[in-house]
Design a protein that fits this description.
Elements lengths: L5 E5 L9 H13 L4 E3 L7 H11 L8 E6 L1 H13 L2 E5 L5 H5 L4 E4 L7 E4 L1 H20 L7 E6 L7 H7 L4 E5 L13 H8 L3
Parallel strand pairs: 1-2, 1-3, 3-4, 4-7, 7-8
Antiparallel strand pairs: 5-6
Helix pairs in contact: 3-5
């Protein structure tokens, strides 16, 4: 398997690069894989702007040795990006139908890591998610997932997302299905080795 030289991490809705999982991955990359190009951007609330930022940020990355990890909404973006550019992806409790699920969250929101940080989730953002969902649906049918290209950690105990929908979303990939856990993957430290085995960083 080709080793990963460039790694992108995408956080979830109302989250940030300061999330527990993002920090754990960042610290391990920094400590054990200093040669890896690491990027974990703060994603804008607009899915259109977020997808543009992601595409622009990895525009010059080598497609055959880059990988993306995404959690929740970031997992949705990660699947989208992997289909766009053909890179490997690891999804952590990925959002499957964010246009449907986030339509209930239109209005002012705060971030989990800093409640004083506020942003407005606009109705138009739901339409932007629908566009990305359509992209994924059309490209996934043309390029089915495989165990060497897609890895997922899914929790049956996820209190926000349906694990069956997530499992379908990751069909064909290598799935680590947890009997319990939760949306945040509070037991992530028990599964991070499996994630890094898949990523195979230089």
């Amino acid at each position: 398997m080709t080793c990963t030289t460039h790694l992108l991490y995408l956080h979830g809705f109302r989250s940030s690069p300061q999330s527990a999982k993002a920090r754990q991955v960042s610290e391990r990359v920094t400590r054990h894989h200093p040669a890896v190009r690491w990027w974990c951007p703060q994603l804008p609330p607009s899915p259109g702007a977020a997808s543009a930022l992601i595409r622009e940020g990895v525009a010059n990355w080598p497609r055959d040795t880059m990988a993306v990890v995404g959690s929740s909404l970031g997992g949705f973006y990660a699947r989208w990006l992997s289909l766009q550019v053909g890179c490997r992806a690891a999804l952590l409790n990925p959002a499957v139908h964010p246009a449907r699920d986030l339509s209930a969250h239109i209005g002012e929101q705060t971030t989990w890591q800093n409640p004083e940080e506020r942003f407005f989730f606009e109705p138009g953002f739901v339409d932007e998610l629908r566009v990305l969902e359509a992209d994924i649906a059309s490209q996934a049918s043309a390029t089915p997932a495989s165990a060497d290209r897609l890895f997922a950690i899914l929790a049956k105990g996820d209190e926000l997302l349906d694990w069956r929908e997530m499992q379908d979303f990751c069909a064909g990939g290598q799935v680590r299905l947890l009997e319990g856990s939760d949306h945040a993957l509070s037991d992530f430290d028990q599964h991070i080795d499996a994630l890094f085995d898949f990523l195979s960083l230089v």
